Amino acid sequence: SIDAKGDAETRVLRPLLAHPDLRLERRAEVTRLIADGPRIIAAEVRRDGGLLRIEARTFVLSAGAINSALI
């Protein structure tokens, strides 16, 4: 039997990672979300000591247990 976390990863996340329009940023800290009205259009991210602006039509924001309350 697969636990709930493993099941979600196996059935949802892994297949999506193969999508050519998906970009996964690891070890990145979101410093700011940029909105146009009610819609997020970009995220400012700190990674490897620099700032990176990511623009996209869709964002999925996810965090682990550490500092998740800061989102």
Describe this structure in words.
- This protein is an alpha+beta fold and 71 residues long.
- It is built from one helix and three strands, in the order αβββ.
- The chain has one helix at residues 4-17, and strands spanning 29-36, 39-47, 50-55.
- The protein has a three-stranded antiparallel sheet, with no helix packed on it.
- A hairpin with a 2-residue loop joins strand 2 and strand 3.
- The protein is globular.
Average pLDDT, all residues: 82
Portion in beta strands: 25-35%
- How many strands appear in the DSSP assignment? 3
Q: What structural class do helix, strand and pairing data support?
A: alpha+beta
* Main beta sheet: 3 strands, antiparallel
Gross morphology = globular
Q: N-to-C SSE series?
A: HEEE
The total of helices stands at 1
The end-to-end span amounts to: 33 Å
Strand order of the largest sheet: 1-2-3
Please, what is the oligomeric state?
single chain
Radius of gyration: 14 Å
**Contiguous uncertain segments of 5+ residues:** none
Helix content: 10-25%
